[in-house]
Amino acid sequence: MSGAVEAALAELGLKLPEVVPPLAAYQPAVRTGSYVYTSGQLPMVEGKLPVTGKVGAEVTPEEAKELARTCALNALAAVKSVAGDLDRIARVVKVVGFVASATDFTGQPAVLNGASELLGQVLGDRGVHARSAVGVAVLPLDAPVEVEILVELTED
Question: Of 82, 116, 136, 155, which has the fewest Cβ atoms less than 10 A away?
Fold first, then answer.
């Protein structure tokens, strides 16, 4: 049975995906104490990137914002894989997003709003977080966006 967070996702027409398998030697998420750290999550949908390229060139900022939302959804799946239940999230502490950017693109914060807004929609006040939005030259598989999150869990 899904909990309140997954019900909130369903109200948005979203379903928690399967955890994206690692592309190299790492785990999608690791728990230490009451914290879960996710690895960087690409905007994979059913095992594939829907779009590749640089934001501000091949990818529009609007497309990239939607991709960041997908990254956050994948990050929540990774959290669930080690926490067992998304309703155990006490708060999202930090979001770090990387945007593969054309040399003149400076809208990284607006792109990462896709991830931040989704977390706020499904977690309410528990989804309010600190954040970094970083422009980079290239990401794995030529992905336009990558997002990692750090969450604190409630006590067992």
Answer: 155
Strands (E), 26-144: 29-32, 35-38, 89-100, 130-136
**Which residue type does 43 have?**
P
Question: Quick one: which of 71, 36, 72, 85 has its CA closest to 141?
Answer: 71
Residue length, the chain? 156
Would you say 17 and 77 are in contact if contact means Cβ atoms under 8 Å apart? yes
Q: What is the pLDDT of residues 99-128, one digit of tens each?
A: 999 999 999 999 999 999 999 999 999 999
**Which stretches of the chain are assigned E, i.e. beta strand?**
29-32, 35-38, 89-100, 130-136, 145-153
pTM here? Answer: 0.96
Cα separation, 138 vs 18, whole angstroms: 25
Tokens matching residue 65: 């914002």
Expressed in angstroms, the distance from the first to the final Cα of the chain is: 19
Contact 146, 41 (CB under 8 A): yes
DSSP character for 48?
B
Q: How far apart are CA 140 and CA 1, in angstroms?
A: 34
